[in-house]
Amino acid sequence: MTDIGIGIVGGGYMGKAHSVAMAAVGAVFETALRPKLEMICASSEDSAETYRKSFGFARATADWRVLVEDPKVEAVIIATPQKFHREIAETAFALDKPVMCEKPMGASLEDAEAMVRAAKGHVNMVGYNYVRTPATQYARQLISKGAIGDVTWFRAEMTEDFLADPRAPATWRTDGMANGCIGDLAPHIFNAALALIGPIERVVAEVETVHEYRPIGKVTYDDHMQMMCRFSSGVM
Fold first, then answer.
1. How far apart are alpha carbons 174 and 222 in whole angstroms?
2. pLDDT at site 1
3. Angle at which helices 45-55 and 13-29 pack, to 10 degrees?
């Protein structure tokens, strides 16, 4: 069994999920590589140390560059707000370190395209986990083999109650379209649709911000998104 040093940038919701997964995956799946929780990074030294103790990391830092450049960190997981994804990923790839980046890849199309270019020739993955489930993979096989006949219509829905309460304060999650429904949640739906049905040819969509003002300030993200589309295969 060979250890591989894992560094995770971000200790919040997804940072915790990846930390727990990395601590357990070697034993659960008897992997040839055994992840070692080497370092975790958060927005302050205090929070980083809290996450270190809670999740079982060897070290903690408030500077993502310290984590990425550390020789004992051999693979990097990015679980930060998306506006930081690109710079962290590009730095890690420049050091030839494998990167697992949470979705969405970046805060803009420009970010995502730059990250794709940087990732060429390096081990990498984006956290589109819904298409990795056995049920989704089985559905993909059935559709591709024609086992359910011709697909003529596809419907997908992702309903969450994040920030449904108008009294919830404004945070980084309410700042910018990259953090809203279409930027943060819909990528899972888009990814599943592309995997199951194929490329999209035409789109009509509407987005809406339900609560434009919250405690602490005005929000600039979207709460709702609905879309009608036509796939290249003719499916609608």
1. 8
2. 61
3. 30
pTM of the model: 0.90
At 167, list the tokens: 């009294």
Of the pLDDT bands very low, low, confident and very high (cuts 50, 70, 90), residue 231 is very high
DSSP state of 102: P
SS3 49: helix
Classify each residue of 220-235 as buried b or exposed e, where b means 16 or more C-beta atoms within 10 Å of its C-beta. Answer: ebbbebebebebeeeb
- Is the backbone peptide bond immediately before 104 cis, with ω within 30 degrees of 0? yes
Minimal CA–CA distance to 166: which of 107, 215, 222? 215
- 156's CB contacts (< 8 A; 6+ apart) are 189, 192, 193
H or E element: which one contains 3?
strand 2-9
